């Protein structure tokens, strides 16, 4: 699966985009540079997928329509493909540039060597885009299939049934469905590919700034992956990543105005298609960047009219063609313009900062940010170096402005000026969330302007200083990206593969209550109609008992009658957790999950009372339940937890650098934890760790290695993850546990999560399951003083 998603899928996506780009190039007069074809092709496939999913009956044909368009373009452009395929040193670096950009963007996944996605749970909107991409390709914009009572239906309805922009989602869904690859594993390669398409337009702009060869390659690469953009790509900000190549492509079309603005009406098609794709991706807010480019084109067209290089009738025909194409290509947005405007206004005015702890700093637009996350401020020496490199970049930008103006690159000057005007305008009216997005979308332009400063040095007496400035610009960007790469938590592959097997096994038997905090389950369990009580959108039946977004779900606190609408309950495999009510029996167990099915026609409990499990049941509480049972002719059913041997971390020995956090032990740097424990009987036991762990931990008991646990994260430090257990045979009595965290490595995510919240042992096999005790109401005293998770009153 890794080879298919990380290598084959982007290759197919490249063929689709290049084929679609060749088709648009052929229709519009054949003036597009080769490095612009992938971005224009991606824009074409976005608008096509939007149109096919607009008609719900045509939605399942989307992958095949995209393939047909690509094949047509490749057939019509076969001569150009042959010409590009001829060996030429001049074309080597420009053609290799998108590949380099893709490798950098996907580095955490590529060097992990497994299907996954990066910055796991940093922005759970990616879960919504996965289910949206899947739903839109299967059903299009027909929302009658949704069950609004559960989380899956509520998420789809709240986003996609309210004119939420879905251009990137339909391209993701259509291309992934063509290869039948899971969207959860195609998601990061898709983002990396779209970001890589930005390299082509960036290279063309760098060339116009006076850079060539390797200089242009370094400039384009730096502009493609500046720190802020790289951070957004790692967290899966699919809309912004898809919009970025569209913005730069509009800039390139401004620079190429002489090739099409003075020609026939078909020359306006690429600009119109890219503009429509941008609107489809981020909504009508993309109009700010379209207007920025259009304003410069209007001035250039007016100059051509005055100089006689263009006539008024031909100009009107050109403009009319562009408007018509843009209207048709973005038809789903225009038909509900009021809804799209409302979505944009809500985003622009929201006070919710999303995953940002504080507003981003304006200086982050300059491309360098030497820290593990763009959301945090650098500290110490890293802060000093960061601001020193930013100062150098500002100097380079000023030199770049002088260089471009002196070179009379007036279309480029105009586009840059309008881009900064759009940035300032959006910042003036936006909030923290919008300001951050605008900074990210402007950063590549600023970095390119700084590289114009390198071009200025190369054409001046200070030419020997140009390599030093280039080293500072490229080094700052790449070092920033390396730090984010090193700290990016990766999604757990095995756990999601197990979840996918669950979906296949129990498809159609939902709705299912999912008790773990993991909104990606909505995609992996999409055929179970999942409801999560701790999701943003909770099941309607459980709204009154919802613990809050990301909080721990305690089934014992849910009313028995409310659970009746859930034939299935999916829980994490955790011996220390309470089992579902007696009406449910365990029907499947894997390494990470358990599936509990409600017995057919099983009535809900009359009363369900949750208990501690660690403390003896009080007779007064048992007696009250017995009285209720007697009045209804019912029995008492209690859940007796398995034997748990807890190993308190507070009594363990560990390095002084490891400190107690809000939740668990924060393991800063390498070290070893040592703790003693005692088991009551000999036999096979399982060691369970709870926390958020990226860099592997190695466990041993009495000096015997048990194995290692790593890349086990749930992405929420306040709701720690339970990890796959490690088996061990033990004799009764005292033992010594050792948990070791190794030193620094270059592995992706090695600097990510390192929180250990709990360690315990439980008997292996059936001994890890709680025992159900059924007693008559008259025998209630037999439950007094016992360790119980819960007691309920059940009809006999």
In short:
The chain is globular and about 105 Å long. The chain has 3 domains: 2-347 and 355-487, no CATH class; 492-604, no CATH class; 645-768, Jelly Rolls (Sandwich). It is 49% helix and 14% strand.
Helicity, as a percent range: 40-55%
Which consecutive residue ranges, at least 5 long each, have pLDDT under 50? none
Number of domains: 3
Sheet/helix structural class: alpha+beta
Distance between the termini: 50 Å
Compute the number of strand runs: 20
Report the principal-axis shape.
Answer: globular
Largest sheet: 7 strands, antiparallel
Strand content: 5-15%
Q: What's the pLDDT, averaged over the residues?
A: 92
Radius of gyration: 30 Å
Alpha plus pi helix count: 27
Quick tags:
single chain, 796 residues, alpha+beta, Jelly Rolls, 3 domains, seven-stranded antiparallel beta sheet, five-stranded mixed beta sheet, 27 helices, 14% strand
What is the strand and helix layout of this fold?
Elements: H1 2-28, H2 37-54, H3 62-76, H4 78-85, H5 89-105, H6 107-112, H7 125-139, H8 151-160, H9 167-179, H10 183-197, H11 199-208, H12 213-224, H13 227-234, H14 238-255, H15 257-260, H16 269-282, H17 287-307, H18 312-329, H19 331-334, H20 337-349, H21 380-406, H22 410-429, H23 432-458, H24 466-487, H25 493-506, E1 512-514, H26 521-524, E2 530-532, E3 568-572, E4 584-589, E5 593-598, E6 607-610, H27 619-632, E7 634-640, E8 645-646, E9 659-660, E10 665-666, E11 671-679, E12 683-693, E13 697-701, E14 704-709, E15 721-722, E16 726-730, E17 733-741, E18 754-763, E19 771-776, E20 790-795
Parallel strand pairs: 1-2, 1-3
Antiparallel strand pairs: 3-5, 4-5, 6-20, 7-19, 7-20, 8-18, 9-10, 10-18, 11-17, 12-15, 12-16, 12-18, 13-14, 13-17
Helix pairs in contact: 1-2, 1-3, 1-10, 2-3, 2-9, 2-16, 3-9, 5-10, 5-12, 7-8, 7-9, 9-10, 10-14, 11-12, 11-14, 12-23, 12-24, 13-24, 14-16, 14-17, 14-23, 16-18, 17-22, 21-23, 21-24, 22-23, 23-24
